[in-house]
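Office hours follow-up: a student asked to see two folded examples consecutively, so here they are.
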Amino acid sequence: MSPTNILLTQQTLVVGIDIAKRTHYACFVDDRGRVLRKSFPIFQSKEGFQQLYEAIQGAMQAFGKSQVIVAVEPTGHYWLNLAYFLEEHGIPLVMVNPAYVCRSKELDDNLPTKHDAKDALVIATVMDIGQRSRKSLGGQGIDNVNEMLQDRFGKLQRQPQSEEKLVDSLVMC
């Protein structure tokens, strides 16, 4: 299945998680974006992740869902522990574009306020409109992360040169 063509059905439980340093917030919605469980905290620990897993299993049973997908807005490296845990338990993880989360949050209530519990719901609903990419850490997860970090570092090093070229071209006009 293509990363951008993840099919949500009536049997899918969507879990939106706002990632933070110590305490994440999760929210359960159905395929239509209806809230099945309001946002609740998850601690950045094995015990916290285990509680999340049990909550997911309980919600799937309570709401008659046979599939689950977790959507996160990646924040630094804090999402990695959760990603490894989910992968160990066979739960697919998708990442949503932070720009879409920000815009959707403002459209939702016309307030640009930042609130983790609110963000978890927005992340879950944005996942449904297709602004996401599937992530699999596959045995080489840390290599992929290192590769992405090196790529970002290279871009940051080239940024001042690009800015100088842009300024020079604007001055010539």
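And the second, which I mentioned at the end of office hours:
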Amino acid sequence: MRLLILSAFCAVFIMKSAMVVSLGMASDLEETAVTDHTMNAATDTGTRSDTISWRPAEVYPATREYKGPDFELPGIESETVTLHEFRGNVVVLNIWATWCPPCRDEVPALIRLQDTFGDAGLQVIGVSVDENGAEAAVRAFSQEFGVNYPVPLDDGTVQELYGPLSVIPTTYIFDADGYIRFYVPGYMEYDQMEEAVKELMER
């Protein structure tokens, strides 16, 4: 029952009065986005989603030149994480939460992606939108899963700059110059991530 409730939360529209202006590009993408990118959840009552198959979201290419807005957020190890510090790398910005089953299931693919392409100029950033004791929960999750990329804690900044978010996980993929090239509203499989990253690295 708990899993079904959490799954529903992942598909709920986040009703924040976010600055859509900041992502004028996202407005174009949202016009063509299929809202049926939410998950095909099985009626599983466990706390892990090992037996659930999520429907992969569509990977939408950017329809215009748009440089992603910078942010500065606290990380789980008392560090500060910014977007601009990774300029020169292809960046995968994943917006997620520990309580979201498809977000959790996406993390191993993100870890693998960072392992595979990190030395070639890729940087994954996992911005957590957890609330109420987020730092402890996110730190414990990151340690359990062996997360190998920065996990900053959103204070509302990213949700404003890159929202409104229709669903989590949501992923933005930037080229090395900081332009958003792909937008993914929903769960991604590893092959989708790899294909998008390789395309940007080969440009």
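Two things to take away from it. Residues 1-48 have pLDDT under 50 and may be disordered. The radius of gyration is 16 Å.
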